[in-house]
Fold this sequence. Notes:
Elements: H1 3-34, H2 39-42, H3 56-70, H4 90-118, H5 126-143, H6 151-159, H7 162-169, H8 175-185, H9 192-203
Amino acid sequence: MNLPARLFSFLVLFGLLIIAxxxxxxxxxxxxxxxxxxxxxxxxxxxxxxxxxIDIFWTFLLPLFLFxxxxxxxxxxxxxxxxxxxxxxxxxxxxxVGASGPLANFILGGLLAAVIEIIPLPxxxxxxxxxxxxxxxxxxxxxxxxxxxxxxxxxLMGLLPEPxxxxxxxxxxxxxxxxxxxxxxxALNWIVWPAVGFILRLMGV
Length: 205
């Protein structure tokens, strides 16, 4: 693939990733707001505008690096700020807030899968929709990995007793290193990719 074609491919996949990430972060902010925490609203994150969710490393540099090294585009947005103690029922609500982002991605992916089954789309548009479904599912599954600050860690901290949750939260400063080691060892492949494949099969993709 020549350089212009590679650049075009990156921009298309990056645009789809931005859509999925914006839906994901908006869902977190909306869930937190409905459960009593207005932090996301007051920090300008209760929006689908991608500009509000951009992080230089996770949103730009990481996807570009992955694309150049593997042809795969993946990244993350800036996490929506959550005030745990502002939630109406912190232990329960942090689980709901954590689950809301991945759930929004799965719902969007499922709706798009239904659309391509029901509505005959132009051949040129179909690959875009399929890629958007796949990116949403990958983003949803990956965020359920229980390593801070991924959403799975919020869910797990809500399920753990307070003393254990407090101890567990202390690994967050080392989360990036832990993730890199797990990816390098291939450990995430045992969970993430099988789960992605299973969900895509359920959606008929």
